[in-house]
């Protein structure tokens, strides 16, 4: 199957979109008034949504720095969001100028902004595709030209699986991508678990997202841990993102919203006889 092509006419600036709301939480400007209003409504329904988004992005940056330190020089970032300042390619290429990155996102505004940002970077591209079509993504020309799947790679699925409902089988999706990774690769995953804290208070946040172009699903940390089955979890395992290799100054002390993350390595497997 071809990677799904999405067109600008699919963009509705009057309907809040979670990707653009997320961009607003991060302080970006790739969002419309409807996105900003919905983001503020979610934040006032349950203050802490914005802090969780920022803490998640900080986690991704720390994970990328860790992976580069482990020798990873190529990244596939699924559901990347707008690759604004401090994103994967900047963090990785600051440490290793030869690092290569392919971003994948389904949101036209994200892809449009990404193409502009990456126009002068021949080692980073953004692919406009739906990550639910794993074969199409893995076989896309951007991936084939920039990445080598037979070498260790950093696969990032940060805060994208809340956008994949259970009816789309996220378990099989994660397993399909992990199966394509060479030994020595890493999986970086994060996911919101709003219910862990206070379901009553957070109900209104879900209402805001239900009215958006796609609802979000909250899942407990145990579900996230299961996605790492068969991989070697890097210490401290699956934790609230602010607790994963914290660095002073870049994260709030405590999140009201449980947003979990973890990093794991694909083990070397004995060669088949
Ligand atoms: C909450 S943002 C996370 C951005 C980034 N990964 C991070 O952690 O900072 C989720 C992103 O996933 C994208 N997304 C959601 N569902 C997707 C799908 N089925 N295929 C590709 N991208 C998707 C959205 O457009 C959005 O940009």
Based on CA inertia axes, which overall geometry fits? globular
CATH architecture: 3-Layer(aba) Sandwich
Please report the total strand number as a whole number: 8
Q: N-to-C SSE series?
A: HHHEHEHEHHEHEHHEEE
Strand percent estimate = 5-15%
Pfam families: Methyltransf_19 (PF04672)
InterPro entries: SAM-dependent_MTases_sf, SAM_dep_MeTrfase_SAV2177_type
GO molecular function, one term: methyltransferase activity
GO biological process, one term: methylation
Briefly, what is this?
The protein is α/β, with parallel strands linked by helices. 37% of the residues lie in helices and 14% in strands.
Task: Describe this entry's structure for a reader.
- This protein has one domain (8-265): Rossmann fold (3-Layer(aba) Sandwich), CATH 3.40.50.150.
- It starts with 17 loop residues before the first helix and ends in an 8-residue tail after the last strand.
- The protein has helices spanning 18-25, 33-45, 49-69, 88-95, 108-117, 134-138, 141-146, 170-179, 199-210, 221-227, and strands at residues 74-78, 100-105, 124-128, 154-158, 186-192, 232-233, 239-240, 259-265.
- The chain is 37% helix and 14% strand.
- The protein has 273 residues and is an alpha/beta fold.
- The chain has ten helices and eight strands.
- The structure holds S-adenosylmethionine (SAM).
- Residues 19, 22, 56-57, 60, 79-81, 104-107, 110, 130-132, 158-160, 163 line the site of S-adenosylmethionine (SAM).
- It holds the Pfam family Methyltransf_19.
